């Protein structure tokens, strides 16, 4: 029997270290202990909603404190650049609302694209109920708002109560525990996706200025570049930032709100994986054999480096670009961009509100639209869809669940604040709209928790448990 190779003994470690060889283990242990509370917080489904609530409270307190002038001066700080005769300067709040929020809307576009391809909106029978509920939840609030608003200046805010804040809504259902069955959470997410699509269409068609053809041509150039790069099999995601920026600039120059560029780029993102899990396993089989040979020093380091690059490229193609981007961008959107937006926009100086007839009308109209219009619209249109046999209630869901869902959908916040910025140029009316949104969202959240605990049972009917995993994965958005 030939002797065992001494090289193989020295190059095959018995255990794999959990840290690089140059790392200092005591410091790493201290870092792991410090990170545990943060990791736990980030994995709670309601964490994003909680953070939004805190930042909104900070903004409201700050804007009404003795240091209110620092709040205004911070967000009105000029940011920009100049290059020769070219000069571009905007306020910090503009950067938040028109640049950072483009990423938020890009992720919204990705999620809508995925839902249409493989989610709740991919099949007619599954899509009809959330589509009907979402349409009712958008139309009736807008109608009630217009019925209350009399002055043309106040009527422009009809789009404000149409929106639902998914982070807060999911957080509220999470607080209801077993009273909110998994199917209800899945239905809420589907309704929210369609709600987002409706809000996007409202922004594009009703809250954008006159269209400039030259801007449209620039935007088409950016979108065409993205399309061409996809056909040329350009897989590096960062390579698409430049043409996406051109599309954003064109949309902005065209007079359309620039966040629409983010949505359109999201719609263009491929939703199918190149390799998928099975293709990945097939592709890496040969590469793994080469790595195995490297343990006996028979493979040059250059060849090993090339193989590892191939493995990294293959790993990138297990998920579709849509799924991959949602996974990587969602934490930034949920825990950075949305809280910054709330901090920049939720600060309403109450002392500056006049509470005259017009301001009071806006506050009442927004509150009625969100608190009453949302649940009534969702219930009515869902009932009509079921009555006409276009849809059916999911297993374990009753009209009581739909009523709670409708009340939860009355928490507008992020999207409502965003549309409010576009709807009102008058500072006083904008402040009234913000106050109405904050009041209505708070009332809707409290009513949802109370009604959920009073009307919904903790006993899940048979047949609902199998959707729990799907719902849990869906609420990670």
Structure, explained:
The protein is mostly helical and 477 residues long. Among the domains are: 123-208 and 330-337 and 349-474, Na+/H+ antiporter like fold (Up-down Bundle), CATH 1.20.1530; 277-313, no CATH class. Helix content is 69%, strand content 3%. The chain has 20 helices and two strands. It has a two-stranded antiparallel sheet. A hairpin with a 2-residue loop joins strand 1 and strand 2. Helix 3 runs parallel beside helix 15, helix 5 packs parallel to helix 12 and helix 8 (166-175) packs antiparallel against helix 9. It is globular and about 75 Å long. The termini are far apart. The model is unreliable at 4-10 and 462-477 (pLDDT under 50).
Quick summary:
The chain is mainly α and 477 residues long. The protein has 20 helices and two strands. A two-stranded antiparallel sheet has the order 1-2.
CATH topology descriptor of the domain at 123-208 and 330-337 and 349-474: Na+/H+ antiporter like fold
Shape label:
globular
Largest sheet: 2 strands, antiparallel
CATH superfamily of the domain at 123-208 and 330-337 and 349-474: Na+/H+ antiporter like domain
Q: Uncertain spans, ≥5 residues at pLDDT below 50?
A: 4-10, 462-477
CATH architecture tag of the domain at 123-208 and 330-337 and 349-474: Up-down Bundle
Secondary structure: helix percent: 55-70%
Per CATH, the class of the domain at 123-208 and 330-337 and 349-474 reads: Mainly Alpha
Mean pLDDT: 81
């Amino acid at each position: 029997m030939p002797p065992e190779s001494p090289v193989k003994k020295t190059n095959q470690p018995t255990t794999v270290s959990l840290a690089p060889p140059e790392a200092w283990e005591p410091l790493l242990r201290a870092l792991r202990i410090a990170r545990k509370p943060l990791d736990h917080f980030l994995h709670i489904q309601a964490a994003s909603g909680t953070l939004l609530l805190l930042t909104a409270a900070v903004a409201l307190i700050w804007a009404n404190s003795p240091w209110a002038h620092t709040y205004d001066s911070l967000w009105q700080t000029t940011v920009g650049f100049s290059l020769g005769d070219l000069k571009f300067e905007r306020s910090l709040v503009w950067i938040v609302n028109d640049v950072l929020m483009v990423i938020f809307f890009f992720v919204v576009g990705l999620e809508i694209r995925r839902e249409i391809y493989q989610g709740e909106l991919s099949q007619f029978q599954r899509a009809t109920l959330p589509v009907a509920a979402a349409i009712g939840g958008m139309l009736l609030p807008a109608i009630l708002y217009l019925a209350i608003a009399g002055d043309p200046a106040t009527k422009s805010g009809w789009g404000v109560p149409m929106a639902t804040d998914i982070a807060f809504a999911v957080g509220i259902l999470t607080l209801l525990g077993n009273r909110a069955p998994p199917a209800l959470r899945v239905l809420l997410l589907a309704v929210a996706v369609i709600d987002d699509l409706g809000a996007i269409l409202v922004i594009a068609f009703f809250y954008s200025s006159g269209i400039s053809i030259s801007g449209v041509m620039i935007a088409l150039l950016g979108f065409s570049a993205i399309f061409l790069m996809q056909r040329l099999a350009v897989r590096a995601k960062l390579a698409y930032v430049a043409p996406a920026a051109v599309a954003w600039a064109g949309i902005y120059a065209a007079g359309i709100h620039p966040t629409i560029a983010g949505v359109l780029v999201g719609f263009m993102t491929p939703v199918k994986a190149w390799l998928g899990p099975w293709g990945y396993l097939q592709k890496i089989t040969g590469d793994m054999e080469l790595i195995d040979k490297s343990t006996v020093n028979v493979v040059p380091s250059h060849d090993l480096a090339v193989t590892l690059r191939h493995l990294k490229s293959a790993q990138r193609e297990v998920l579709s670009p849509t799924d991959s981007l949602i996974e990587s961008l969602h934490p930034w959107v949920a825990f950075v961009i949305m809280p910054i937006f709330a901090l920049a926009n939720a600060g309403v100086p109450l002392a500056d509100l006049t509470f005259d007839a017009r301001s009071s009308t806006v506050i009442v109209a927004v509150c009625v639209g969100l608190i009453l219009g949302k649940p009534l619209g969702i219930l009515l249109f869902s009932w009509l869809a079921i009555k006409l046999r276009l849809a059916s209630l999911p297993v374990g869901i009753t009209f009581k669940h739909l009523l709670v869902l409708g009340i939860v959908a009355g928490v507008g916040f992020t999207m409502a604040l965003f549309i409010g910025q576009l709807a009102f140029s008058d500072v006083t009316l904008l402040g009234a709209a913000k106050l109405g949104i904050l009041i209505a969202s708070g009332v809707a959240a409290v009513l949802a928790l109370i009604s959920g605990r009073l009307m919904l049972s903790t006993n899940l009917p048979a047949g609902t448990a199998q959707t729990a995993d799907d719902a849990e994965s869906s609420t990670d958005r």
